[in-house]
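Can't attach files on this board, so I'm pasting raw text. These are the components:
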Amino acid sequence: MGIITISRGSYSRGMEIAEKLSEKLGYECVSREVLLKASKDFNIPEVALTQAMQNAPSFLDHLKHGKKKYIAFIRKAFLEYIQKDNIVYHGMAGHFFTTGLSNVFKVRITANLEYRINVVMKRENVSQEEARKLLEDLDESRRKWSMYLYGIDTRTPYLYDIVLHVDCMQVDGAVELLYNISKYKCFQTSPESQKKLKDMLIAARAYAIIVDKFPDANVKCKNGVVLVSVESSLAVEKRLTNKFSKLLKNIEGVKEVKTYVIPFET
Amino acid sequence: MGIITISRGSYSRGVEIAEKVAEKLGYECISREILLKASKDFNVPETELLHAIQDAPSIFDHIKDGKKRYVAFIRQAFLEHIQKDNVVYHGYAGHFFTREIPNILKVRIIANMDYRVKVLMEREKISEEEARKLLYKIDIERRKWSMYLYGMDTNITELYDLVLHIDCINADGAVEIICDVAKRPCFHTTPVAKRKLKELLEAAKNYSNSSASAS
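---
Top answer:
Structure tokens for the assembled complex are below.
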């Protein structure tokens, strides 16, 4: 009865760990499935979503918020997926998507650069120099991505319950340890955590509906009451309130929609 | 048959965790003992050594390398002490001092700011604002210290085998996890690790001697 997210440094054997862990726990192992779901639900090519998740933001992203929109779609698909419970998710952004859900066991798998270089050289059949360059580029791209979207480096340890270095522990050692920890009471799904997850999903669904027009809106939900905070002119407060209510009231589980307009700085 | 270093974010219950781990494994638990040893061996007041390993570098440190000299003394005392094996060291710089030695389990204990604020408020009987301000100052000092001496932030996860966030796991859970990991063969002291430790100690002695005679 639990949800585990595994963030993995590229070429740190995190995928292998996630697969073995889910098998041992009897949980479903999820990664690309979330992108496929988002792609189907919003009719967007999977490749476009992959790029949104993988690449550092471009100049256009800063202007057009394209990346934000796609991430909102992926987040919604992710939260819908994990409602099922008993899931090991490995891949990007799981720890960001579940921030505030303390019952979700958040793991990061890392390895020393030298270890990762060896893995890249074997897997991609490239030279040591090429492997180093590839990893440096990947790490920098991830850093820019998370800084742009969440204002925090994905390597920051505070995002996780545990950070495991696989160099010494190896894959099987890591799996065994994570298996034991996942049984802790604090990482078991409870009625309270399920309620919180449901509210989070409602907010994610609401944001996915309005993100195109209001990429900077802040959407929250508590006990089915949705609060949309948006920066705008006070003159259009009533119009926005009606608009959000009309757009969001039919989302499953929504009891009420409230709008809070933050006046533009004059 | 092993050595564990525990780096702890201030007010993250790292001392308690280190003591319990040592007790459970039957290892010696050390921290301040290293400073006392360095103070005695090099005839430097303990408070000066504490400032050297605790505070951010001052402008004089950049000019005179005084901090570097004192840290070299502490490092030597540390390396001498851990030759005994079966040791849990908690405190400053253990992960930096042992970077080149294999089979040493390097752990970092962290907690969210709100959790630390609460611990500090309870322990020191101060307001939330004062606690937050103090923790912010301590964190900045630690970052500056490690950047000055080792060119990297002490928070970087690559420095450790294991980073544990105790908000959810709690101190007892952390103890259980560390003991579990410490029992694995890759964290048992090997002849290679012992040899490396000896070599580093010799190098540390040479460095301390040369910096002591240069001063």
